## 1
Amino acid sequence: MNASITRKALLEPFQRFFQQETAGGIVLLLTALIAIILANSPWQEAYQALWHYHLTIGVENFSLSMPLHAWINDGLMAIFFFLVGLEIKRELLVGELARPQQACLPILAAVGGMAVPGLLYILLNPPGTPFSKGWGIPTVTDIAFSLGVLALLGKRVPLYLKVFLAALAIADDLGAILIIALFYSGNLHWEFLLPIGLIL
């Protein structure tokens, strides 16, 4: 009896915290702060080793083994973008972005938000200088942090602003993927891309 009461007393504050709308934003910002501190501390080598630790899931002949950071980048981030994409699709079909006039604004904002930082970078690092090829870096908006800050503000932010920023961040990320494919990768295989485009 005492053990169950103690367990309930320990878990209740956590349950209350994660039921709040701001919980995701707080956790994201705290973990980012911890990561910055660890990456710049005497424990930085152990911190880097943790992200390169190989995690294997599966059985002997049917398994997948990747570094921890790859599980996050290729697995969890795919789920994250899938969920955000579903939310945007719902808003485009029946929500705040259902009218073309409303849907155009975040797309145009994303184009401007990519073009202006990229052009400023090129002005400061003209072609031929050592860092001129890094112009693609400032064109990307961090969607997770954008949504995390909005979640932190909770109900003080109107729904349209949340949907607008999510749509802008997704359009920005799609643009960033195109930049990586066209300017930072090897040869493009149009024989694969064209059929996929037709299917889509």
## 2
Amino acid sequence: MTSITKISHPYYYLLKAMRPHHWVKNLVVFAAPLFALQLDATSVLLASVAFIVFSLTASSFYLINDVADVKADRQHPIKCKRPIAAGLVPVPVALLTAVTCLAGSLLISFSITPWLGISVGTYALVQTGYNLGLKHEPIIDILCISAGFVLRALGGAAATAVPVSDWFVLCVGLLALYLGIEKRKAELKSLGSKGTTRRVLKQYTLPWLNRMESVVTASTLMSYSLWAIDEAKSHWMLATIPFVTYGIFKYQALSEQGEGEAPEITLFKSTQLFLTLLLWALTSLLILSLS
């Protein structure tokens, strides 16, 4: 029993350092085939592969970032508990895993279709720039977050050979931009500009983020509404606008309380938000399947 526990510990901590709870963000790869109702076994399998390669790519950068920040993390009251900072995962093991995950993701992606490989490669370049310094630049840091979601959506479309419209890309991009703004707003409210090691927060102010939030919120709702009118397969998709409206404003309310730092956690923490997303998805699928 003891020997099994000892063997399992390194792998457990390595997996924890890869932050699998963040992989839920990569479910956006299913957006294009979902709205195209291309949910046959082949498409689901290919979208699942896209999900895996984006997850492994993201995890490789989590590992690299934790290695780069290991000295600072060890001085932080919370980050010092991260597996690499705590010495539970050796730095060479973390780096080897990161390189293996990144190389494997690129090889698999290009073997599926060149466009998936390009999407994953571009995502990797964005992450590289983000970790090298763009994360410290206000506005640009949020644009990088938004670009990551758009590239995931395009990667899922490429993997399943589903054509996407300009409205689809615009909706995904604006929604991701909205989530990025809410993330910074929640961090600023809960931690303050001096209560965190995230340098970029010192350059943001709540009034500025509130103005950005107003513009992007209106743009997101308008782009989704216009998509529902002009691009959706059925005008009945207009019935889903109330779900989107409530979800966006509910998320704003949560960020006002400092709870919007991590969308993947906030989504499951808020029962109302989760049910809204579920009802929106079920209603959309029903309308699209009957159109």
## 3
Amino acid sequence: MPKPKSSVPWTRQHRLMALNLYHKLPFGRLHHRNPVIVEVAAKMGRTPSSLAMKLTNFASLDPVLAARGIGGLDGASKGDREQWQEFRENLDELAPESEGLLEQLLNAPEGAEIDCTSSPRGVVIRPDRFLVRPNGPTEGTASVKVRRGQCFFRQAVLTAYGGRCGVTGLAIPELLVASHIHPWALFPEDRIDPQNGLCLSRLHDGAFDQGLITFDADLRMLMSGRLKESEPKETVERFFEAYVGLPLRSPEKIGEPSRAFLEWHRSEVFAG
């Protein structure tokens, strides 16, 4: 393999792949020793330091980090800023495109999920068994674009919550769901926006989807009266009532949930 170079030009494709990784990697892992960064950089033909620097440049443009007084390197170029803005404004097109570019770079087979978060050894390529296919007359069979968008959304949301359920702290990937606040069928423009996602256990995802729980303007959990009336009461107390009034796990980076989306959920879905 040719020796990586720090002078490899930053093409649009490389920036898109870097933006994809930025959304999937925790802020504390945007460094040149991260095995994911080492592996992807080598495939790009550049040094790990070059890719890590680009990721921290993107971090300086993240409004969620800025609001918390956290920032990356203050060296984002005009091209970085333009690509960041374009990516955020066209997630439905560019997130799947960036996922496809990573698939090609890593020689991932069709139908695979590129997992950048769960293994300390680097990228894991596996069947996308965690993804829930959307229902609907035109989407009974998910297209390549839909699958890639879902892969991006799931990993970006789970990363924002540190790989833990935002309610309980559960950290078993097989039991976690990237839950949509605005439902898939009703809001196609928000389908893969990480700010439309919550990382929840399968139990709490089901309760949220059915309007049995929601979150207030301060991200504290609310419980429907329907749950309070359910039996057995000790089960409801253990899995739901114990978390009422407690704040949602604080998301990192661009995945902080939209307050406007949650307000919609409270008014239109929550059973009260």
## 4
Amino acid sequence: KLDIYKRIAEIADERERDDMRDELLDRFGEIPASVDHLLRIALVRAAAHRLYMTEIRGKCAKIVFTFLPNAKLDPAGIPGLLKEQGQDLSFTAYGIPFFTYKCKKTGLAETDGDLMLERTETLLERMGEVLHITS
């Protein structure tokens, strides 16, 4: 079991996630939702690491994406990303830079959690596209 958790924690891309999912399916049968979430979170962690993030925190219908102060990202994409997301996304540049995304709540904890994870995945993908890593 520990070996599987360790391998899940080391997932770096979708191919590795899909390989792990296939292996788990072959070994144990149908994959529970909690394990699928764990695989998705492993990809979130890998994407956050590539974007020089120190933390992603979801709480009270907000998702906060915190960056290293010296993150090697191109800030030229920030205004377009903010415009694209409307009033739901804000950026704070002073001190430790971070984005805050306001989620819409449904009132159902499980649904809200799924929506927050899905939105986190989508935002990380967009950030990776517009905040090009610089040297």
